[in-house]
Design a protein that fits this description.
- This protein has 29 helices and 50 strands.
- The protein folds into five domains: 5-83 and 330-403, Jelly Rolls; 97-299, Jelly Rolls (Sandwich); 422-590, Alpha-D-Glucose-1,6-Bisphosphate, subunit A, domain 3 (Alpha-D-Glucose-1,6-Bisphosphate, Chain A, domain 3); 601-817, Alpha-D-Glucose-1,6-Bisphosphate, subunit A, domain 3 (Alpha-D-Glucose-1,6-Bisphosphate, Chain A, domain 3); 823-970, TATA-Binding Protein (2-Layer Sandwich).
- A nine-stranded antiparallel β-sheet has the order 5-4-1-21-18-23-16-15-14. Strands 2, 3, 6, 8, 9, 10, 11 and 12 form an eight-stranded antiparallel β-sheet that branches.
- By secondary structure, the chain is of the alpha+beta class.
- Helices cover 31% and strands 26% of the residues.
Length: 971
């Protein structure tokens, strides 16, 4: 299809509308009745009428006839319908106080009302569809609105101005929780008692108003205006919200974006309203319509504040102004057309073009496929996906364009192509040189937009931030944290700076306060890199969140890359311009203290009494905190090995050099304080434990993290376990006889957490091969309840292992010696580019992404798909799997001291099990350009031997594999 569809809007004659503005804009004869809204969308409640070849048809029906042709494959696949609703809105009187639900709330509410048999058009219906309703209002005239709660201190003050109402309510404390309690009490007030108080309040305002005491800046002004506009004998209960909500005034061209959960009301003016295709409204008052206080208070975000006023961002390259918003369904831009300069573009998805209603009576010509279409003021058309069109005007005219974000390249920033961050196994990672202020800001804003679209945050939400000890995290010359902070401020959110604390301490603090959190850390990866880890209010970002986060990041990237220099924060290289960087708030100690109490309150005060522990401090952010917790539980602690620079400790791949250095440290402590029970430490952000058992003669033995997890899970009496495929098979040997549920996942804490939370069990836990331990249930401990912490934690496994050894009256080494006799060794091959690792996996892969694993026995092949279903049919797939086994066996065979290859697991990398019990697992690192190898065997020497043969230079097996892919010259 090469032509556009002229749209005749559906008119809504709500009582608050203006009788003149919309008729004048659309060339309609005034009728005297109010014209509140003109709908240019395809919502089934009131679709616009599309004119095609002289035939008129409701737009929703026209799209249903040929959805992919009109919407395009991308939008059709993502939404299945036109995902936005464009309106022209004119308010002569204040609208109801209202709030819109998040998507999850809308889905649940819609299903609930459907099941209850409430008719779709019933007055008592709250949810008319299962969609959320994000909303953008761009003013065409001066426009007034109430939006978001005033600050707690302002609410304290404003309640003093309405003593008639305040006297009926609970005492208000300036907190979010107190605001919720206040509104609960307010809606519970008897109608007669509240009516009398409201009458007294309004009478007082009216008497003062006769003296012109009030202006539109005053809540009293709008309370009186709202009451008079409703013409009711009984004052409306919603009047209280006029005092609790913040007033926002927009000048023409300015915008206001309203997220789910934000209470608001439009007070007066004309504007363009653009929203998700939904008609879900929960009202709080100032309306004769249905009010459901219980559902309203369930949906309202009590941390919501007035959002920042949006000014259009001018794109110098394309001569268009954009309104940046946190929405995946819609975007709005504005063309100011010059008669001498036609604009030609190709529709990216469906695009609705609206001639500005406040313009002159001249028309805009839209040429599609050689056919012109005339748009008069206030008229609109829908341009189908992929259609090339040209905009022409005989005089300066303004045109608004609505489209669905995505599908447009955002690669170039002022002529350069900055490197983009990508997700590793957990969090965004990249070179410090690539983590510019611009790139950090874009990714943080994108994440915050993701939170808004999912209903997890609104302007006003508190974001907790922290960082590790890397100089680039927050140093004098370089501060990734300050770019994160500016992104939070520009999103209208609040910052709590938790300082330099462990990642799990920040995550726990966020969960306890129901706040999102952001940790600036590179974890264990080399010094030249760093990263950003995002947490939702309930814990880590999961793998299922990464795609929508990156989509939100792409939307922000497009805006920031196109933003004019004059209004940008950044210079041409992506660094802050002078004066744009702002300092971090002062760091508080609440998160650190809360994390310490997590352990001190659930272990006996003498849990580690008599034990002597060395703490290898190096550059771990939790080094002092770990010592404090150990000391608080009665251990004798000796800190050792503090480093001024950053030391990259990877507890999953300890080198011989690092193990030797640890022995030196153990010897040093032994000299100072005598025999010790253990040397412990963590990685850089203190979410992965390092535990070393020490013999009586001083010899130190590194205790692998996946084995450590067995000790901890057993001590916690876990009944459901999630671990990555890279962890030792000793886990299965130890727990399966006890009927403990075990789930194996891809590598990375998000995968393990998702699996752990999906398991059935009262004591659910998970851990990674690096020892980072997670709890998915609240677990009863000796002296208290250990609350769930679904993120990697280093302190809990250290404490549990030491306590278990003390209670068993044995050493750590004795505890580990009692485990199934399986030994592991891992290592890395550095400087292997990601694309080379991918080529290796493809070369030796199954050729079918549905294949999870394959077993070979007695010339019989059996493979398992990702759902766990087993297959044994022969055919092309089986032949490919046999070829793959033969190719791998040519490298992992008798020449390397390995037996026949019995099983291959492709879930994450290539994990091979050989006759005799040897296991070799090869996979790329998710955080750095490294190729990892894990070896498991029945003896420590055998595991060391296998790992050494894999990593040997220049003729080890990993090098052989790279040569076989033809990619060795890239390494």
């Amino acid at each position: 299809m090469t032509e556009s569809l002229l749209l005749k809007p559906s008119i809504q004659n709500y009582g608050w509308g203006d009788p003149h503005v919309i008729p004048e804009a659309l060339g309609l004869a005034p009728t005297g009745e109010p014209f509140a809204e003109a709908w240019y969308g395809a919502h089934a409640h009131a679709p616009a009428i599309a004119q095609v070849h002289g035939i008129e048809r409701p737009l929703d029906q026209e799209i249903a006839r040929r959805p992919e042709m009109l919407l395009g494959a991308r939008v059709h696949a993502q939404f299945g319908e036109l995902p936005y609703l464009l309106k022209l809105l004119t308010a002569a009187k204040p609208l109801s106080i209202q709030v819109h639900p998040s998507r999850s709330q809308a889905e649940a509410g819609f299903a609930r009302e459907q099941q209850a048999g409430i008719k779709p058009d019933a007055p008592a219906r709250s949810y008319r569809d299962p969609n959320h309703k994000l909303e953008l209002l761009v003013a065409l005239t001066g426009f007034d609105a109430l939006c978001g709660f005033r600050s707690p201190d302002q609410i304290t003050t404003v309640l003093q101005t309405i003593p008639e109402i305040a006297a009926l309510l609970l005492p208000y404390q300036p907190t979010t929780a107190s605001l919720r309690a206040l509104l609960d009490a307010y809606f519970a007030l008897p109608a007669a008692e509240l009516e009398a108080a409201l009458r007294r309040m309004l009478a007082r305002f009216a008497a003062q108003d006769q003296l012109s005491a009030y202006t539109p800046r005053d809540a009293e002004y709008w309370a009186l205006r709202s009451h008079r506009a409703m013409s009711l004998d009984v004052p409306d209960r919603g009047l209280l919200f006029v005092f609790l909500l913040d007033r926002v005034h927009l000048e023409p061209g300015q915008g206001l974006f309203i997220a789910a959960g934000v209470p608001h009301s439009y007070l007066g003016g004309a504007g363009i309203e653009l929203m998700s295709a939904s008609d879900n409204v929960l009202r709080a008052g100032l309306t004769p319509k249905h009010v459901d206080p219980e559902e309203l208070l369930r949906v309202v975000r009590f941390d919501a504040r007035a959002p920042p006023v949006i000014s259009a961002v001018f794109d110098e390259r394309h001569a268009v102004a954009e309104y940046p918003v946190a929405a995946e369904e819609f975007a709005l831009s504005r063309f100011d057309l010059d008669p001498a300069v036609p604009v030609t573009r190709v529709a990216c998805g469906p695009e609705t073009l609206l001639a500005s209603p406040d313009a002159t009576s001249s028309t805009i010509t839209i040429v599609c496929g050689g056919k012109p279409l005339q748009l008069r003021r206030g008229h609109a058309c829908l341009v189908p996906d992929g259609v090339r069109y040209t905009l022409e005007s005989s005089c300066p005219k303004r045109l608004f364009r609505v489209h669905v974000p995505g599908g447009e390249p955002n690669e170039v920033f002022r002529g350069a192509r900055p490197a983009k961050l990508s997700f590793g196994t957990s969090g965004l990672r990249g070179l410090v040189s690539d983590l510019t202020d611009l790139e950090t800001y874009i990714n943080t804003r994108g994440y915050l937009d993701f939170l808004v679209t999912t209903g997890a945050a609104v302007p006003g939400t508190t974001i907790a931030i922290a960082g590790d000890l890397r100089p680039s995290t927050d140093g004098a010359e370089r501060s990734i944290s300050r770019a994160v902070a500016l992104a939070i401020r520009d999103s209208g959110m609040q910052i709590v700076n938790c300082g330099r604390i462990p990642t799990p301490a920040l995550t726990y603090f966020g969960i306890r306060n129901d706040w999102p959190s952001i940790m600036v850390t590179g974890s264990h990866i080399p010094f030249d890199r760093n990263g950003i880890k995002f947490n939702k209010p309930n814990g880590e970002v999961l793998k299922s969140d990464e795609a929508p986060i990156l989509a939100a990041v792409a939307r922000v990237r497009g805006v920031e890359y196109r933003r004019a220099r004059a209004v940008s924060h950044f210079d041409d290289n992506g660094w802050f311009l002078p004066g744009r960087e702002t300092p971090l708030p002062d760091a508080g100690d609440c998160a650190r203290q809360l994390y310490a109490r997590r352990y001190l309150d659930v272990f006996p005060a003498d849990a580690l009494a008599g034990m002597r522990v060395a703490v290898y401090e190096h550059s771990a952010v939790g080094r002092e905190l770990l010592s404090e917790i150990l000391s608080g539980l009665g251990a004798g602690v000796c800190p050792v090995g503090r480093a001024d620079g950053f030391v990259a400790i990877d507890t999953e791949a300890m080198s011989e050099q690092q193990l030797g250095e640890i022995q030196v440290l153990a010897d040093e402590v032994r000299t100072r304080m005598g025999p010790i029970d253990a040397l412990v430490s963590t990685d850089g952000d203190s979410d992965r434990p390092l535990v070393v058992g020490v013999e009586r003669d001083g010899r130190a033995h590194f205790l692998a993290g996946d084995l450590l997890g067995i000790i901890v899970a057993a001590a916690l009496r876990a009944d459901a376990i999630a671990v990555p495929v890279s962890a030792t098979d000793a886990i299965d040997m130890h727990f399966e006889p006890g009927d403990v549920k075990i789930a194996r996942t891809r590598i990375g804490s998000p995968w393990v957490i998702a699996a752990m939370l999906s398991l059935e069990g009262e004591r659910r836990v998970g851990w990674e091969a690096n020892g980072g331990f997670m709890t998915g249930s609240t677990i009863a401990m000796d002296t208290g309840m250990l609350e769930a912490l679904p993120t990697r934690d280093a302190v809990l496994p250290i404490l549990v292992a030491l306590h278990a050894a003390r209670m068993s009256k044995c050493s750590l080494l004795d505890l580990f010696a009692a485990l199934p006799r399986r030994f592991g060794r891992s290592g890395v091959l550095d400087d292997v580019p990601f694309e080379v690792s991918r080529a290796l996996l493809e070369h030796f892969g199954p050729g079918d992404p549905s294949v999870r694993s394959v077993r070979f026995a007695d010339n019989r092949l059996q493979w398992t798909d990702l759902s766990g279903r087993e297959h044994d049919r022969d055919g092309v797939r089986a032949r490919r799997l046999r070829d793959t086994r033969d190719a791998l066996a040519s490298h992992f065979g008798p020449q390397r001291g390995l037996d026949s290859l019995n099983e291959i697991d492709f879930l994450d990398g290539i994990r091979m099990t050989f006759a005799g019990g040897d296991i070799v697992h090869v996979r790329p690192s998710g955080n750095a350009p490294q190729l990892r190898v894990y070896a498991f065997a029945n003896s420590e020497d055998r595991a060391d031997q296998i790992a050494s043969s894999m990593l040997a230079e220049p003729s080890g097996v990993l090098r052989e594999l790279l040569r076989a892919t033809g990619a060795l010259d890239q390494v």
